[in-house]
Amino acid sequence: MKTLNIIGAGKVGKVLAKNFQRQQVFAIQQVLNRSLASASDAVAWLGAGQAVDGISQLQPADVTMLSVSDDQIASVCQQLVDAGLLKAGSLIFHCSGAKASTELQAARLAGAAIASVHPVRSFANVDLLAEQFAGTICSLEGDEAALAVLVPALQAMGAETVIIQADNKLLYHAGSVFASNYLVTLMEVALRTYQAAGIPADVAQKMAAPLARQTLENVFNLGTQAALTGPIARGDMQTVALQQTRLNDWDQQAGDLYQAFTQPTIDLAAARNSHSEK
Fold it and tell me: Does residue 216 contact residue 224 with C-beta atoms inside 8 Å?
């Protein structure tokens, strides 16, 4: 097995490493986090590897995974190059959804193969995801030599792999932000709106949960056009205008969000109606 060093064994790094180890894809060699205590905790959770306290303690590995924050990728990569840890025959990849593999240009100049790997999943529950990683879609881009190693490695873990272009990385990741992060924010606004109308918090949860879950099921089973319901879908724009005014009076941020969604929803309803008339 190829050896693997992990720089930044947080949620994403630990889940990937656990599955690499379990499927005997890579052998975990060393783990470096911001503190030795954190690295030691990660090693204990993984059940493999050696915790180290700095880049100077790292030994060269066949593969290096950078699962650090986006703004650290380029600088940590440069430090690894300066330490002589990346050279011809080495492979290094990072796990950012927004940044392209070009952040690792220093490693490429040193002769290493570079790539980015982004698992399209929510990492809120690391223990659960580590056990249920199979079926996860992972997007990759980078050097052919790197992809030739990483694609089969991820597929051996049960992941579905999709190759994307580096130039599209930001746009691709924005889609994930809409589908996950901003969905959470939208539900927070929905729950606050219920409560502002006098609905107790626990009842608001019970009201919103089946509505949100069924809507998502409809989106993925029927498509967005067929899943759209509500006042705009019915053409009841007077209700929309009245709600807009009331939201503006209560909470301007909520009012702005409602307004931001209005025209795209009108367009979606129009597309549905146009399609049904054909």
Answer: no
Distance CA 218, CA 85 (A): 50
Show the tokens assigned to 276. 């049904």
Measured in residues, the chain has a length of 278
Task: Identify the bridge partners of residue 52 per DSSP, sorted by sequence position.
Answer: 32
Q: How far is CA 171 from the centre of its chain?
A: 13
pTM tops 0.90, yes or no: no
Under 8 Å between Cβ of 159 and 12: no
Distances, alpha carbon 118 to alpha carbons 42, 96, 206, in Å: 20, 6, 33
Q: What is the pLDDT of residues 185-241, one digit of tens each?
A: 999 999 999 999 999 999 999 999 999 999 999 999 999 999 999 999 999 999 999
Query: Which token pair is 146?
Result: 């790197």
Partners of 113 in beta bridges:
91
